[in-house]
Design goal:
- It is a single chain.
- The protein is mainly α.
- The protein has one domain: Up-down Bundle (Growth Hormone, Chain: A), CATH 1.20.1250.
- It is about 80% helix and about 0% strand.
- The chain is built from 13 helices and no strands.
- The chain has helices at about 5-20, 25-40, 40-55, 55-70, 70-90, 95-125, 130-160, 160-180, 205-210, 210-240, 245-270, 275-295, 300-310.
- Helix 1 (about 5-20) runs antiparallel to helix 6, helix 4 (about 55-70) runs parallel beside helix 6 (about 95-125) and helix 11 crosses helix 13 (about 300-310).
- The protein is globular.
Length: about 300
């Protein structure tokens, strides 16, 4: 790594990228105004977020290869542009199939590519403090969700139109990507003096044949599912089932706890190791989801569980 590169300044730039990408998890805030404005069915509307989450892993494979080839910045910029365009184009649609395409597919492709490039690129500059660096960068996602809801509230108050809010958010995101990319440098490719690969490193063909990969895949998928439920529906659940007045408040609180949790678990990973930290995270998530199941209707339990899963 070149001595002229300030890795902490780079870290700040990567956090700003995640401020943008965190906007996708504010979907629960947009659900109610979208249903009111276009009279869409809530279950069908939720498919837009589901498609987005399902699409995200696909470009991550491409993003990983770009990182290995020393093209981390390109992955971030291309992904960021696609993500922003997904929001911008969503501001012009008035039917669900097009929303599935713009918010679901286009924004999902951009999110997966940019997120993979953003996280893995900066971690190559922090081989000595990977847990802390990843925690700080990932905390940007939670803050980004909070910023998205606040900006959306402002745009909604000014325009009284949720589509305009999505359009303006996309424009803001595009401007942020354009500015921040000047402060980002690609980490060197594997064969150009970067961090040496571990003897356990395998290519994707060997990885797909390894049972441990599929076990890890299933564990992570099940764990992430809980977070996606809270991210996509916390505002609507709070307002319809618990009589809460502000969906934005619920989303904001979950986002704050999400940011704190990412910092906390990232730092803990450096001390306890990834495996031990994951065990604690999943046990805590399991407790929170069981509380929601068995104490349905209790507002205090709802807040504790939603914030706990976010954490």
């Amino acid at each position: 790594m070149s001595a002229s590169i300030n890795r902490w300044g780079m870290l700040a730039a990567h956090v700003c990228i995640n401020f943008v990408l965190g906007g996708v998890y504010a979907f629960s805030y947009f659900k109610t105004p979208l249903m009111a404005q276009y009279h869409w069915d809530p279950a069908t509307l939720a498919l837009a977020f589901s498609i987005n989450m399902g699409i995200i892993p696909l470009p991550m494979i491409w993003g990983g290869r770009m990182i290995d080839n020393g093209k981390g910045k390109q992955a971030i910029v291309i992904g960021g542009i696609l993500f922003s365009l997904g929001f911008i184009l969503s501001g012009f649609v008035d039917n669900l199939p097009m929303l599935f395409l713009t918010y679901g597919v286009i924004a999902g492709l951009g999110s997966g590519l940019a997120f993979t490039g953003n996280l893995n690129n900066i971690l190559k500059f922090f081989p000595d403090r990977r847990g802390l660096a990843s925690g700080i960068v990932l905390a940007g996602v939670g803050v980004g969700t909070l910023l998205c809801t606040r900006l959306a509230e402002y745009f909604m108050a000014q325009t009284h139109d949720v589509s305009r809010a999505l359009l303006y958010l996309g424009i803001v995101y595009l401007v942020v990507i354009f500015i921040v990319q000047f402060f980002i440098r690609s980490a060197p490719a594997k064969d150009s003096g970067g961090i040496k690969a571990s003897p356990l490193d395998k290519d994707y063909r060997h990885m797909l044949k390894d049972l441990r990969f599929w076990l890890l895949f299933m564990i992570l998928a099940l764990g992430v599912f809980s977070g996606m439920v809270i991210s996509s529906s916390s505002a609507q659940i709070g307002m319809t089932q618990y009589g809460l007045l502000s969906g934005a408040l619920v989303v904001s609180l979950v986002s704050i706890f999400n940011s704190i949790g990412r910092l906390f678990w990232g730092g803990l990973t450096d001390k306890l190791g990834g495996y031990n930290t994951l065990v604690i995270v999943y046990l805590f998530t399991c407790v929170c989801m069981l509380l929601l199941l068995f104490f349905n209707g209790n507002t205090s339990v709802f807040y504790f569980s939603a914030l706990g899963v976010g954490f």
